[in-house]
Specification:
The chain is an alpha/beta fold and about 290 residues long. It has a single domain, classed as Ribonuclease Z/Hydroxyacylglutathione hydrolase-like (Metallo-beta-lactamase, Chain A, 4-Layer Sandwich), CATH 3.60.15. Helix content is about 25%, strand content about 30%. It contains eight helices and 16 strands. The strands form four sheets. The protein has a seven-stranded mixed sheet. The N and C termini lie close together (about 10 Å). The relative contact order is 0.16.
Amino acid sequence: MIKYSALHPATFKLDGGAMFGIIPKPLWEKQIPSDELNRIHLSLRVLCIQTENRVILVDSGIGDYHDSKFSQRFAIQGGATPLVNTLKEAQIKIEDVTDIVITHLHFDHVGGLGSEAGNFLFPNAKLHLHKSHYEYSLSPTQRDTGSFQTEYFKPVIEQMEKAKRIVWHEGPEGKILTDGNYQLNFRCSHGHTPWLMHPFDTKMIYMADLVPTSAHVPIAWVMGYDIAPGITTINKADFYQFISEKNLSMIFEHDIKFWGCKISWDGHNVKPTEKFDSLGVKYESLAL
């Protein structure tokens, strides 16, 4: 039996205007209210999939090694080694983790992999990365260079590559791993950042920053952070067609109130048909 869990190691805040791009504040603030600095409260949700022989994590949160100025700017709340401590609450040892899939290398998705010294924290895990995205992360545009903290993740990746514990993935879609009858696959989107991997199986798909919260389900509701917002709208329509055909549950990485939803899609219009409440605790089982 496959067990799905949401780990909630930390929260942070981002500017609401940046999170919603061209959508006017009177509209988006009805969905997610902002604080006095115009920031909205967001989750750093990590998906955990437990199969017969594997413990798989999707993304790793923001880490604990940022200076006080950075932590205050983003209102990071998570404490020391937040992902490791959250795994303990879920009664999962770091030695138990067999695979970590990184959707993309922005600082709020890859930060929990290693320590400030660049040491990988999971002694028995393989690291799954998209090769083209990694190459892009080393030479991004000036517009998104601040999202890639290469000084932290590059030493970890180089360490793992030397140990031959990286599984490089390529192309627009493919298989990530199998365990008996279970198979985890991926499809890529490109609007938020090139070659962003979205893991999926027969029940769920992890939306990462293509649809970071339930408020971003409408196609036009696109983040200002996206490198190519017009491409994001095309990606969303393509993904909604795929999700509808497969009857998948969407899992949100950054939504505080909801960990996921089901959608209806008629080829032009989308709407959530069922939203799944988050308990707001460090560890919760997902009914999939």
